[in-house]
């Protein structure tokens, strides 16, 4: 966790790169109960017009949240988070998987009626240089100065 006592608009969060493999998709399917074959079968993914097996959208969303939780150091400080899914993360059937690059920046800092400071963080998730989430925003309670 970094020193968050002087967070200001424009501050960049430390970037994070995460590899997603087919094994990760199997583990996520087991944990979430989402066994849709587009997440494990190239044949089915292709038959519905996808370029290949894709990562679960909620997995991609969760990975993107990591850039915020690792920055703030306390996942409980994140009280709001939302995204729009814009394009899939295609996960090849190899040992390397797909590289998802995550970053974030503070777009607003406010003080609530209770005196609590809140940072609004714009999150970016990219795969093969293209954004996979839009309107990805987290709101985080900051420690008191």
Automatic annotation (TrEMBL):
<protein>
    <submittedName>
        <fullName>MaoC/PaaZ C-terminal domain-containing protein</fullName>
    </submittedName>
</protein>
<dbReference type="InterPro" id="IPR029069">
    <property type="entry name" value="HotDog_dom_sf"/>
</dbReference>
<feature type="domain" description="MaoC-like">
    <location>
        <begin position="16"/>
        <end position="94"/>
    </location>
</feature>
<dbReference type="Pfam" id="PF01575">
    <property type="entry name" value="MaoC_dehydratas"/>
</dbReference>
<comment type="similarity">
    <text>Belongs to the enoyl-CoA hydratase/isomerase family.</text>
</comment>
<dbReference type="InterPro" id="IPR003965">
    <property type="entry name" value="Fatty_acid_synthase"/>
</dbReference>
<dbReference type="InterPro" id="IPR002539">
    <property type="entry name" value="MaoC-like_dom"/>
</dbReference>
């Amino acid at each position: 966790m970094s020193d968050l006592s002087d967070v200001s608009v424009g501050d960049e969060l430390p970037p994070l790169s995460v590899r997603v493999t087919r094994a990760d998709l199997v583990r996520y399917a087991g944990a979430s109960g989402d066994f849709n074959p587009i997440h494990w079968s190239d044949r089915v993914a292709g038959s519905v017009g996808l370029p290949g097996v894709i990562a679960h959208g909620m997995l991609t969303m969760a990975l993107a949240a990591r850039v915020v939780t690792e920055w703030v150091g306390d996942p409980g400080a994140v009280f709001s988070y939302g995204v729009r899914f814009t394009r899939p993360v295609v996960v090849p059937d190899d040992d390397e998987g797909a590289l998802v690059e995550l970053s974030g920046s503070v777009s607003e800092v406010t003080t609530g009626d209770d005196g609590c400071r809140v940072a609004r963080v714009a999150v970016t998730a990219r795969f093969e240089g293209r954004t996979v989430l839009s309107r990805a925003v987290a709101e985080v309670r900051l420690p008191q100065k």
